[in-house]
Structures are given as structure tokens and as C-alpha cells.
Here is the input.
Amino acid sequence: MVLDFNTLYDIPRTIEKFFDEMWAPLEISQRRLAYPPMNVAEDDNNIYVVMELPGVDVKDLDLTIADKSLILKGERKSEDAEYIRQERPTGYFQRIINLNVDVDREKVSAKMKNGVLEIVLPKAEEIKPKKIQIES
Amino acid sequence: MSTEVVKKEEYPKVQPFTDIMHKDNSYYIVMDMPGVPKENLNISVDNDVLTVEAKTDFPTFEGKDLLRSEFGNVKYVRQFTLTDAVDKEKISASLKNGILTLTLPKAEKLQPKKIEIQAE
Here is the structure.
């Protein structure tokens, strides 16, 4: 690292740093499968999709619902500056989520907070579990 | 032997993706920190070592069936060694949209200074 000239000082930290860096690639490979990483959950009424999208402007995101799939497209932009180190990914990304169930398209909501995108997809009325009364 | 499962309170430590940039009279450290609210962020400078620590606060799925899980709560930790080229008193930070930007202004004495030549 360019800013790091005085590596001879603070030996315990230097050793700790060495081990941290040894483990780092492993952590990254475990974390990054497809971009953006997402968590999906469901309950009886909704499907919940949560994605990590730090620094992506809402206007650079394109969220579409096609036939039983949710398509997210976007771009991560790079800064106009002289890079000394670059680890953050940039460029276009797209992810398609198969929903496998019918959703109520009109009621889908999405919000962005702290670089986290949360999408709530209400399931269509027809597929919700319904209790059937048995007459005796 | 105890069969009780010890619950780990600490989140796994992760080094956040970081860009270091140079523009005009400052260095910029930009870090990806999705899911970190302002109150969970801790930045300190001690003996030329700049430490950034933050805990994520992702929405939980309690009472719901998890279908796919590709990330979870983590503790972002990263340290940087600063040189004299940086004015340590003037470091500022801003957190926006899950991006932490640290602005490190260059030290006054290292900025280029034009010397006037006196013509006789």
C-alpha cells in the first residue's frame, strides 16, 4: 500500500496484519458467489429479497418483474480520481431471481437504506394457503 | 461433557472492499459498508494507525422461511498506517448509501509551493 511506508514500527500489528491478509482471499471467495449477494425468505403472505448494494444510486437501478422472475440491473460507477488501490467492484451487473410463484405485481415494494435493497413481493391471493372448513 | 451450544455473540470479521484514491490535495479511502447504520461505526486514529470498525444491521428474517442466504451480519475491520504526508488532525468521514468515505488532506508542508523569483 502506498500510504504504508513505516512498516517497521508496531511489530505486533504487522504480524496480525500478515495473518489477516493470509485469510482474506478465503473470506472473499466465500462471500462472492454472484453479484449482488442476496438473501431470500418467505412467509405465507410475502417473499422477501434483501441485497447488498453499497453506493448504488436508486436511479442507476432497474428492477423489473417478468413472468415469474425478478430482474435487477444496475451499474456501479468508478470515481474520477487517481486510484492507488482498487478493490471495490465496478461495472454493470444483472441478477435474475426465479420466483416460482405468482406475485401480486401491483403491490411489489422496494426500498434502499444504508446500501441495502429490500424488496417485498406479496404473493398472489390464489396461491396463499387457505384453510378449508370440514363440515361434520 | 456439556451438550449446551455456546452461542457466538461476535460477528465474523471481514475486511471491507476498499479503494484508495488521490485527487487534488487529498487522499480518499472509500469502503463498501452495506448495512451499517451511523451509530455502529467507529473510526479512530492512534499512533499513526487509522482503525475503522463497524457492525452491520441487516434486516432479520425471524419467523420466515429462509430460502437463500448469501450474506449475514459481519463486523467490518480494517486498519491503515498513516504517514506524515497526511494531516491527521483534519481527517473527516462521511457515511452515505453504505459507503464510507474518509478524506485525508495532505499535510501543508508537502503541498507544492511556488517560489517567486526575484528579477534584478
